[in-house]
Amino acid sequence: xxxxxxxxxxxxxxQGISAAIIKQNDLLEQYFKxxxxxxxxxxxxxxxxxxxxxxxxRSYYKVGDQLQxxxxxxxxTWDIVHIGDxxxxxxxxxxxxxxxxxxxxxxxxxxxxxxxxxxxxxAAGTYHFTTVTSGITDTNWTDSTKSGWTKTWQxxxxxxxxxxxxxxxxxxxxxxxxxxxxxxxxxxxxxDTTALETVAMTLGTGGTDLAxxxxxxxxxxxxxxxxxxxxxxxxxxxxxxxxxxxxWSPQNDFDRPPRYATSEGFMNGLDSDFxxxxxxxxxxxxxxxxxxxxxxxxxxxxxxxxxxxxxxGGNNFYDSPGSAVQDIEDTVVWDYYTKFRRDGKTGINTEQxxxxxxxxxxxxxxxxxxxxxxxxxxxxxxxYVSDGGRxxxxxxAFVWGGVAPACRIE
Length: 410
Fold this sequence. Notes:
Blueprint lengths: L10 H22 L12 H10 L11 E6 L2 E13 L4 E8 L8 E2 L7 E2 L8 E4 L9 H4 L10 E4 L9 E4 L13 E5 L9 E7 L4 E2 L9 H6 L8 H6 L33 H4 L2 E2 L1 E6 L9 E6 L34 H4 L18 E2 L6 E2 L1 E6 L6 E5 L8 E3 L3 E2 L4 E4 L1
Parallel strand pairs: 6-11
Antiparallel strand pairs: 1-2, 2-3, 3-21, 4-20, 5-8, 6-7, 7-10, 8-9, 9-10, 12-21, 13-14, 15-16, 17-18, 18-19
């Protein structure tokens, strides 16, 4: 009879094999995941994109993992905030969002706008105007005993305003500012920041009504800027690679350059291999029902701000929680904002959440930061995340806020 000798591993051999397998798995995991500063799980961004295309990104990455790229000398850290499926191809897409706010400073969503754009040359002389207050129900704006926004104002110029020039208030104001204390500045074109002249403004109906020569802007847009994402200063800046002072151009008749118009576009200085894999996102964003007619815009953006629903803040209601939903704004809740909820729960959380708190990158200074959703019951208020991570808030578009943009790779 033939004898077979079977050698079974000794206990110490099994332990050694097991330890070796665990070590190998750990090494693979360390290779494919970000575990320390400066260590990238894939050697190129193209490799990361290829994992997405293959539909295997979840095998190596998870929501909450971090990736980095350079913008000039600065290092930007991005969180994986959502992983989704591309049904047509069987691949994946990944949404990245900056972990903290853009480090160079807070930025306006949109600058205060002009009163009027000259469609034809306006000769020196006397003109008058009444700002538009349609749709506003707040009597602080519409009651002439409380504010001057419904009153008629006149001014006299001594210099011709060329075709394409603008008429503006000479300085910023609040809704309750006594407009009689303001003056008028005229500009040769929207990009100009040096006025042709500044003249006095008084109550009166003397001279030519500007409304007979073109369109007078809405009071809230003049006072606090415009809350329409598709025409915002921030959207234009985020999606530009132009050099300093070259990225801004007017997006509507009343658009004015923001304070950061002299800087370079956000994409200027970003790693070229990172930019090469960023895909355009098809975004749906609400439009206000005050200066506009509601509904939504569809834009294609490389870099963008989250909508309120993306950060688990609920749908964008017309006025306040409980009223009618404004429209069909982006419906995808990014997993990062449910997975890491401070209270461990799931579902909508509009109130404080440490997970939504962001800081000036590289500091312990907490900043509130912009969303792209408008406050639909105004022409000027934009949703933002307040200190403490509350999602349901709105403020004037001209305010300086933190910026934590997102992008898509697929």
